[in-house]
Amino acid sequence: MLVLVPPFESACEQLYNSFFDCQSVITSQKRIKNSRCHVNAEIDTEEEDLIYNDLFTKFPEESNASIGEAYDTIEQLITEAETYFQGWLKYQVLWDLEPNDVFQRLGTNVQSWFECLKDIKESRKTLDTNEAYKSFGPLIIDFSKIQTKIGVRYDNWRQDLLRKFGQIIQTVANDFHTNISEHRNNLETKSLESGTLDDSVQLMDTIETVRETQIDNEMKIKQLLEAQRLLERQRYSF
């Protein structure tokens, strides 16, 4: 489970405490008291009256607006940091997903496999950076430790997908070869002149099927060749 330590609640509390500490530099100053006329008098003064604790409530509207902007800035920093962290949470799926669920969803659709492998490759590139943290004012999100773990998880997923993809390509290629071989055998062994009526009908059906599937077969060959090149680049053993 990907979590942030300490959580944003703690970071928000610390930012506000830092801001209040800055305010207290002024509000904690002791008030100047003239006690010359009260040498023998007992002075009953509330503790809060001895400092400028209520000073900010007496500021003009322009000054109060500046204090409001400080609060807004803190909230904006927290929001930006949370949005950035949400981008890291998407990698949690690498641990939540089961490989077999992905395999079943992709099925034997070669194009879907191409797109899946491409997406994983592109997503993996975002981790290849020398940066180890992201700053939002005084807030710093250090992702150096999880970055390495996610990279390893990505590589494991890619290897599992490539292994399964190779098996599927072999199955698809074998089925395609069997289908083409049957059509070729029918075309080469049967003749309209010398065959029986059934042979002639079968031959005509085969010719029509080959014509109808020619474009699809050409695309299939192109896909299989592309898949072969991809697997060879990954040193897949056929």
Assess the beta-strand content as a share of residues.
Answer: under 5%
Which structural category do the helix and sheet elements fall into? mainly alpha
Secondary-structure element order, N to C:
HHHHHEEHHH
Shape descriptor reads: rod-shaped
Strand count, sense and closure of the main sheet? 2 strands, antiparallel
Spatial strand arrangement across the major sheet: 1-2
How confident overall, as mean pLDDT? 82
Tally of alpha and pi helices: 8
Report the C-alpha radius of gyration, rounded.
36 Å
The total of beta strands comes to 2
Give the termini separation.
Answer: 36 Å
| Helical coverage, percent range | 55-70%
Residue stretches low in confidence (pLDDT < 50, at least 5 long) are none
